[in-house]
Amino acid sequence: MDLALRSCVAVVSGAAALGLVVYRRPRRALAAGGLALALLAASGATAYATWNPKSVLEPRFSGLLSSAPSLVGNARSIVTEFDVYQQELARLVTNVTKLYDVTSTLPAYSPDPTTVRVLHVSDIHLNPASWKIISSLVEQYKVNVIVDSGDTMDHGTAAENGFLDPIATLGAPYVWVRGNHDSLVTQRYLQGMKNVHVLDGGRAVSIAGLRFAGIGDPQFTPDRSTAPGAAESQEAAGARLAEALRAQRAAGVPADVAVVHEPSAARGTDGEVPLVLSGHLHHEQTEVMKKGTRLRVEGSTGGSGLRAVEGKYPDPIEASILYFDRGTRRLQAWDEIKLGGLGLTTAEVSRHLPKENQPGAAPSPSPSSPSPGSPSGPSPSPSAVPSGTASRKAP
Fold first, then answer.
1. What Pfam families does the record tag this protein with (predicted)?
2. Are 102 and 202 within one domain?
3. Range of the domain at 45
């Protein structure tokens, strides 16, 4: 109230004084003061109507701010060091054009020892640019595990296998499931590579304190020799994975993350695992299913490959960084990363927090809880912002 009163007095007196100097008439000077007061009131009313303090929990960095890992910090810093985070965000918004000059003065990005970082990629579709992007993300975010939910290839032929060789140099363990464009030839080639973990038939593997279980896509799209309906359905594959997840939980080694290619197969795991990752749709989306399992669908990290030029605009290159608490092995937050597709030079990073991890919310259940996943809905996605800005606008 004090700020509002001071602002009104300053605006009216300043505008009236300036009007008197310019027009030399008291009536026009008062009119100038009244107009300034009206504009101030309209601005204040607009700010009041759109104000949402919670929107700062999901900042979006784009353009020059794409070096968000050094700016955002670990998944917990938004809550535990919110004042520092808020000051740095405000300073970056006002100094966006000088970002590269001020980054040396920002707090160092110190990995939280209780946070496991998982890079989720999908649908690379033979785009060679993806490997450089993935390698850069691994280095910038200090990624512990890379999860690829399939369609790394386009036709699944042996001639394409050489495309997979850069995986050995990415700098992190690589967890992979077969997509509908990946053949068994592709799968066998990856199984022979060091540091690659192929999941199929419900097989599980423990990496960096997390247990991943997955199943390959039952269908192989390029194989025209297979009669329609001869392959296992997506629903049946999801049911097989769910059965494997139940068996692992009964054996005392429950999975923390399930991985499939198609979301339709992922739905069969609802209630059996806290989080399931998939791809196939070539766009990102998140939902919490009926029994509490969170489904995270990744976009195309290859920008849809050659299909990028089929539409009016090129498809973006998308990937996500998932933050897990090492103790509870639950998802704490995730960053959606979107790069401009073919011919575009834009970059956006937006952070999302599940409702149960926001300040004041009840803690999520432990991994031993019979009800995996949180019943809360997905965190809303912030609205798009132009390149070169950091958004705190309410969704």
1. Metallophos
2. yes
3. 2-50
Kindly report whether the global pTM for this prediction surpasses the value 0.90: no
Q: In sequence order, what DSSP letters do the residues of 202-252 get, joined into one string?
A: T-EEEETTEEEEE---S--TT-TTSPTT-SPPHHHHHHHHHHHHHHHHHTT
Residue 221 confidence (pLDDT): 84
Please give the pLDDT value at position 205: 97
Mean pLDDT along residues 21-45: 90
pLDDT tier, 302 (very low <50, low <70, confident <90, very high otherwise): confident
Residues 150-164: what's their mean pLDDT? 93
Q: What's the pLDDT score for residue 337? A: 85
Say which CATH number the domain at 218 has: 3.60.21.10
SS3 content of the chain, % helix, strand, coil (to 5): 40, 20, 45
- Residue 153's nearest CA partner among 174, 193, 124, 191 is 124
Q: Do 13 and 161 lie in a common domain?
A: no
Answer yes or no: do 17 and 62 share one domain. no
CA distance 293 to 241: 14
DSSP 189: H
User: How far is residue 33's CA from residue 40's CA, in Å, rounded to a whole number?
Assistant: 11
Domain check: are 105 and 36 in the same one?
no
DSSP 20-76: HHHH--HHHHHHHHHHHHHHHHHHHHHHHHH--GGGGGS-EEEGGGG-THHHH-STT
For 343-377, give one letter per residue: b (16+ CB within 10 A) or e. eeeebbbbbbbbbbbbeeeeebbebeeeebbbebe
Asked if residue 225 and residue 359 are part of one domain, the reply reads yes
Give the pLDDT of residue 62. 63
